[in-house]
Design a protein that fits this description.
about 280 residues; mainly alpha; MetI-like fold; 14 helices; about 0% strand; globular; MetI-like
Length: about 280
């Protein structure tokens, strides 16, 4: 029996579209590179004009950022809030999306349109009513004030509902014949088929919650309940700002985002690739 021939590396010619994507990619990466360069520069080099490359690598900016502020505690708060919101969106948006996609009930279409209409409402309009409800629930200045309003989102319901519509109904009918209930069909039949979509929703929810600044600024006052994005503003003074230390803290705060993006990148591609299949 002959052994299979080894695979040969085939060089793919660059597409003309790459000539357009490469400058766009450089524009997107430039702020990130500049942030890293400022984080390893001296304070005098950040005020130099015209700007240039740092003369050396000032690694102590990172240790100073961790020493001068409870950055680790803020990162832990952000992780608790983000992970809780991700779990809440996966559970509640799955239930709501499945109900809108498969269960026929009175006023279901009108209710779904109302949910979609909330996507067009800016957060600044609902910010004050949300704060009043959070205060009435006794969650002011707690991590619960950051978690509860974000446990379910209209975008998550819409995203999962659209993907539920693409799943063939024959799978559900076969499960019903076997005596499966609605919840069992959802968690054992439907959701395993939608892992790329669930991963996409989880990543988008994590990024939105992790980088949120406006709502924590309003709902939280005490330093022990601050998230990392809110805590970074304490590096800025009224008359002067230590930019190397601030950029070092910003780099540290974005490391989980970079790791999550590279780990879940393939789920984005798979989700888009299967979006048109039915």
């Amino acid at each position: 029996m002959n052994a299979p021939a080894p695979r040969r590396f085939r060089f793919r010619r660059p597409s003309p579209l790459h000539l357009v994507l490469l400058p766009i990619a450089l524009v997107m990466v430039a702020p990130l590179l500049w942030m890293v360069l400022l984080s390893i520069s001296t304070e005098a080099e950040t005020r130099r004009f015209p700007p240039g490359l740092p003369s050396g690598i000032e690694w102590h900016n990172y240790t100073d950022a961790l020493r001068d502020a409870p950055l680790g505690h803020w990162l832990g708060n952000s992780a608790i809030v983000s992970v809780s919101c991700v779990i809440g969106n996966l559970v509640f948006c799955s239930l709501a999306g499945y109900a809108f996609a498969r269960i026929r009930f009175l006023g279901g279409k009108a209710l779904f349109v109302a949910v979609l209409a909330t996507l067009m409402v800016p957060f600044q309009i609902v910010m004050l009513p949300t704060l009043i409800m959070v205060r009435a629930a006794g969650l002011t200045d707690t991590l619960g004030a950051l978690i509860v309003p974000n446990l379910a989102t209209a975008f998550g319901i819409f995203l999962l509902r659209q993907f539920f519509m693409t799943v063939p109904q024959e799978l559900e009918e076969a499960a019903r014949i076997d005596g499966a209930s609605r919840l069992r069909i959802l968690f054992q039949v439907m959701l395993p088929l939608m892992r790329p979509t669930l991963a996409t929703l989880a990543v988008l929810t994590f990024l939105q919650t992790w980088n949120d600044f406006l709502w924590p600024l309003i709902a939280v006052q005490s330093p022990e309940h601050m998230t990392v994005q809110l805590g970074l503003q304490t590096f800025q003074g009224a008359h002067t700002t230590n930019w190397p230390r601030l950029m070092a803290g910003t780099v540290i705060s974005q490391l989980p985002v970079f790791v999550l993006f590279f780990v879940a990148q393939r789920f984005f591609v798979r989700s888009v690739a299967t979006a048109g299949l039915k």
